[in-house]
Amino acid sequence: MASKLLHRVRAVSARLKYSRTLSPTLAAFASSRLLSDVAPSASTSPAPQSSGSSDKFEHNAKSSSVRSSLKDPELAKFSAIADTWWDSGGPFKPLHLMNPTRLAFIRSTLCRHFGKDPSSARPFEGMKIVDVGCGGGILSEPLARMGASVTGVDAVDKNIKIARIHADLDPVTSTIEYCCTTAEKLVEEQRKFDAVISLEVIEHVADPAEFCQSLSALTIPEGALVISTINRSMRAYATAIVAAEYLLHWVKEMAGFVYNPLTGRWSLSDDVSVNFIAFGTKNSQ
Amino acid sequence: MFIRKSFAVNLGGIRVRSRCLCGAAAAGPSGSIRQSNHGQEQQCSGTSIAQYDIAIVGGGMVGMSLACSLASMPLTKHLNVAIIDSNPALVNGIRINKQDPPDPRVSTITPATTSMFRDIGAWQYLQPYRHAYFDQMQVWDYTGLGYTRYHARDVDKDSLGCVVENKVLQSSLLLCIQNADFQKRIFPSRLVSMSLNPGLKSKQMDGISSEISRADLAKLHLSDGTCLYAKLVVGADGSKSQVRELAGFKTTGWNYSQNAVICTVEHASENQCAWQRFLPAGPIALLPMGDNFSNIVWTMNPKEALDRKSMTEIDFVKTVNHALDHGFGPHPTSSLLGKGNIFSWFGAGVPTSGNGGFEIPPKVVKLASERMVFPLSLRHANDYVSKHVALIGDAAHTVHPLAGQGVNLGFGDAFALSRVIGEAIAVGMDIGEASLLKKYEAERKPANIAMMAILDGFQKAYSVDFGPLNILRAAGFHAANYISPLKRSIISYASGEQRLPLFT
């Protein structure tokens, strides 16, 4: 049964690639290896210690952010890509449009769960949050501005480089820790977080159930877990939600994302048929 | 949009600035820095450059209302704000002598603005000084064919608006911000130039001051040599906005061939109604100020304006009374075509509300201030925002004073912008981000343009003396006077309660 599920997920994700208007979002991840796959190759070693001077962007978990040298030609090249990634009118526009709505959901559910003051400008002060599949840091940076100690991980090294460059522009976001690694590797390192957030990732994962298990393992008891995904079809809904809800029984609150093409705005709604975000908590055993 | 299509001639002159390269997508070997100081990077005095979250350029009524609004909300009160204005009153305070007659520079603030002032805690500083609520308004013209009387009770309210001197408004906002627990710094200087960095490509290491030039901030150079960084620059610097020019915003507009003569006058007794009569050359408005004083705003062509300004006080008082009374045409009667109200065919079912008959405004006894003359124009910035920059108030839009709406639009902008900033901080976004600022623009631009179009429409409709058009206008007066839903809608819209002139 598990293999049939796996088979269907692979078929669905193969069909999903490059087929929708949100393909820029996908493109960022489509070139990535699925998170549960084979360990990344040596060029993007996730080891926390920086190995060799060529790779200036590896981030030691304990050290503060690394400032890059002006003379590095890599800086110029990645700066250009980062500019495009972060241009809210550019190819990643749909992602940028969706972001405030996702953040509003996260803010309200996490504040409620952890008893934080929602009218504070930095409600997540003192909390450790991990953004699994952080891309260029579009979610990590606002979370850092809201006071959290953020760790952003992504299997694509290019994304991590982009994220690092952009985060270093502002002292508030330069404290974000970015690592090119996977959720499973973090579990192996026995990392724990108050909140684990993974948005728009689970639809690309080979084994959603195992992925959810990893996310859950990263969460402290009574911590929070937020997952969102694009619901392309009943099958996508089935695979993702079945994996999360019925296998792990954790979904507490779910909201749909609806896009209004006239206003160009995303908003939260009860309609989960297109895209939805779910929040749950890990019960202490 | 429809303004541009209908009136192709832009007499005011569109100021086309260097292309505004918004966002980071601009390519180019030079880095395409939006530097609007004719290419020269000016030196900054001092060793370290201070960083602020928001730099409000222009500490007038609208700029200060933004500062007070930010100070009053929990999400934004932690922000670090710079206010740039060379007016020494901002530092020394504004002293108001209650015995003085009112300044001719006044504003009519709508009930919506009043409640916003209460929300930010500024109204309490205004109350000790002269201000006058009015609950009635009469509008008519020289043809004698019709009139409308508005009453606040038509919309179940206590007042239609409040007339306050500008210096009282400024002083109360200044006191409000001084007493607020809010990080602000007033820079008694002028903005000379701005650098709005496009993004990462221009990130530089300044070896001299060992300070990394912040690639995500706007850099402002002031006339006294100081420099500062800000995430967001707000242009609240009036109709000749420096921020608007430096940021390269294009404008559309034209000059009206009219000037406004403004002064304070005194009556024998209290005036409690606002009066506006449309004359052939332009409207004359009489606004109650309290203590038997009223404010006159008289729009006319420039030559007459000069005459009226230079004539003796006694002569001026005579012409004012003449203009408000029998001058230029007869008093209107309550029916349009003699016997039989044209609207009687609506039937008995329609509730009518003619609030009493036509009244003659109170006589002006003497002039109580100097006469000031201002040219009138319409101007609208095509965009209100770009990365790191937002325009509010007259910097974004200038309107005809005939409905007393101008500064209310500006206050509306300020409160909308502060709310949008609060929402951005709630979701951790960078407040200089263009997409978020566009939310403010999307909220205010339609409302402001609608208002401007209406005012401009009125201005144009009333500048033609043509029989059939006169009758149409009169019919408009009658409709507004006798059809309750229409009247309610008009009052609601003019009071700022309704954002757009729609019947919803």
From TrEMBL, chain A:
Keywords: Methyltransferase, S-adenosyl-L-methionine, Transferase, Ubiquinone biosynthesis. The keyword Cell membrane does not apply. Residues 40-65 are annotated as: Disordered. Pfam families: Methyltransf_11. Residues 40-54 have a biased composition (Low complexity). It comes from the Eukaryota. Residues 130-227 form the Methyltransferase type domain. Gene3D superfamilies: Vaccinia Virus protein VP39 (3.40.50.150). InterPro entries: Methyltransf_11, SAM-dependent_MTases_sf, UbiG_MeTrfase. NCBIfam families: UbiG. This is Ubiquinone biosynthesis O-methyltransferase, mitochondrial-like isoform X2. It comes from Rhodamnia argentea. The lineage of its organism: Eukaryota, Viridiplantae, Streptophyta, Embryophyta, Tracheophyta. The gene is LOC115755390.
From TrEMBL, chain B:
Residues 227-315, 370-451 form the FAD-binding domain. It comes from the Eukaryota. Its main location: mitochondrion. The keyword Cytoplasm does not apply. Keywords: FAD, Flavoprotein, Membrane, Mitochondrion, Mitochondrion inner membrane, Monooxygenase, Oxidoreductase, Ubiquinone, Ubiquinone biosynthesis. Its cofactor is FAD. It is an enzyme of class 1 (oxidoreductase). One of its GO terms (biological process) is xanthophyll biosynthetic process. Its EC number is 1.14.15.45, 1.14.15.46. The keyword Acetylation does not apply. FAD-dependent monooxygenase required for two non-consecutive steps during ubiquinone biosynthesis. Required for the C5-ring hydroxylation during ubiquinone biosynthesis by catalyzing the hydroxylation of 4-hydroxy-3-(all-trans-polyprenyl)benzoic acid to 3,4-dihydroxy-5-(all-trans-polyprenyl)benzoic acid. Also acts downstream of coq4, for the C1-hydroxylation during ubiquinone biosynthesis by catalyzing the hydroxylation of 2-methoxy-6-(all-trans-polyprenyl)phenol to 2-methoxy-6-(all-trans-polyprenyl)benzene-1,4-diol. Component of a multi-subunit COQ enzyme complex. This is Ubiquinone biosynthesis monooxygenase COQ6, mitochondrial. It comes from Rhodamnia argentea. The lineage of its organism: Eukaryota, Viridiplantae, Streptophyta, Embryophyta, Tracheophyta.
